[in-house]
Amino acid sequence: MSYQDHIRLGENGRREIDFSKLANFQDRQIEAKNALKTCKYLLYGGAASGGKSYYLRWIAIYLLLYYSGKYGLRGVRVGLFCEDYPALKDRHLSKIMYEFPEWLGTFNKQEHEFTLADKFGGGVIAFRNLDDPSKYLSSEFAAILVDELTKNIRETFEFLILRMRWPGVEDPKFIGATNPGGVGHGWVKKLWIDRDFEGERFNPSDFTFVKAKYSDNKYIPADYQNQLDSLPEQMRRAYKDGDW
Question: Would you call 35 exposed, middle or buried from its count of C-beta atoms within 10 A (0-12, 13-18, 19+)?
Fold first, then answer.
């Protein structure tokens, strides 16, 4: 597998996108993007304000471009999930109109889907919520991305990876972004942090964790550290230090 920042697209390879300039990833986000070369299940984050949601939106774009360019596929779909609709709206839907340039594609507000321009393969990011995962029983996604993964029980993860397939795509991906804590803290920590695969059916080499903290995000105000320091100890360790 070869992942590149300069992705050649379109008829006879005449169309190009410089993804590194388009997404403007910071160092830790670049590290997480590069980790996809060798893993199937990626966890990104670990502390508050590490740029997790931004990373998920743009890595979804990257994967659509990659699948179109590598396999010559059109209309590939990836799913970006939050635990409920209010979270989906606040973290992602409210950002799309001013974050994704008009030439890149179109956003269908009613369907909650962003579709790449035809010349870029027409791939789709389906923004969805997980209030009832069984809604997606017949869905297929070349990649599944979950924001705040620890807000979900393990059964939700197990169900989603059943939907992680697309005709012609040989390397589907699962990407979770999260802080410590929440109803799913235990199982997420077990797989990605402790790497405890005893009794599991997964291949440990498929799992990678990239830790990001607020200090990795240059856009966070300087006084944000004071807000984190003012939290009760357990919350401070989780949200400032990314302590699992």
Answer: middle
Dihedrals φ, ψ of 106, to 5°?
-130, 150
Tokens of 139: 């869905």
Type of residue found at 6: H
* Spatial distance between the Cα atoms of 243 and 220, rounded to a whole number of angstroms: 20
- Nearest CA to 80 among 46, 106, 53, 48? 53
> What are 143's strand-pairing partners?
78, 173
pTM of this prediction exceeds 0.85: yes
The token duo for 27 is 């160092």
- The answer to whether residue 129 scores a pLDDT higher than 90 is yes
Q: What is the mean pLDDT of the chain?
A: 89
d(CA 188, CA 216): 22
Mapped onto helix, strand or coil, the DSSP state of residue 17 is strand
78 close to 59: Cβ distance less than 8 angstroms? no
Residue 14 confidence (pLDDT): 40
Q: At CA 56, angle to CA 151 and CA 18, rounded to 5? A: 175
